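<discrete_fold_record>
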Amino acid sequence: MRTIGLEEHFVTEELAGYGASSAGIAQPGVWAEASRRLLDLTGERLAGMDAAGLDVQVLSLNAPGIQAEADTALAVSRAAAVNDLLAATIAENPTRFAGFAALPLQDPQAAAKELERAVTQLGLKGALVNAHTQGRYLDDPTLRVVWEYAAGLDVPLYLHPANGVDAAHVASGHPELTGPMWSWGVDTATHVLRLVFGGVFDDFPEAKLLLGHMGEGLPFVLWRLDSRWGFHNHHGIELARGNPSEYLRHNLFITTSGVCDAPPLLCALLALGADHILFGTDYPFEDMATATAFLRSAPVSEADRAKIAHLNAERLLKL
């Protein structure tokens, strides 16, 4: 069965410094090994894919990527350069790799134009966004132009976690809660809800959002979101689709990246449907072979397994 992974990270020597703020989250030896693998685009990566039975990786720049750059002009030039490198890597390995563009969201107009160039000229399949950009989230009105281009090009934006602007007080004194084990998931799920209540999907009803890590917990809370939306003061916000869950079932696509466990997969299948779930490994932060073994043995129908493994990715990304 063909298998396509959608959350497969890399970095370059020039851009590796942007991720230094994440080094303290991981154990030193683990971070050093992941950093080494991030820099390897084809050698060990391809061998690992072969061993795991992973046919295609959709590559994306590791968090926080270009968005950590304070100089807007440098962000624009570095995004173009890394997208060119990514496209060249794909051209050398066209059956094994596809890619998501990095965007210089510091300049929304430039980001929109870079997305257009990346898709129409470089053949990339959308873009990956790492959390906030200098404190600005994807519901910001200035970033509507990026959504406009993404919807017009019919490509998804993949929302990936990164360090937040600040830490919630409830986590104070507990640095172990900061990072992918807990706080990143909460932050990213909240970011998605900002898009819903901020009107992004009312403005662009067919926009497509990808979200990793089995949906960052959102499939589990759809009923609760709708129930409490009916109870809460709406603060002047009204949703064209009525309830929050309607947007998550329509505009949201999730990947299994970093979650190799049957209960959350079955919850996601029941909550969102098999057409909205795709495969990912979260390489190099998770093990490719563990992820592909989970996919092969997950307690789902063969029809759903094929959708998750490759059919949904082929359809959504036009692979």
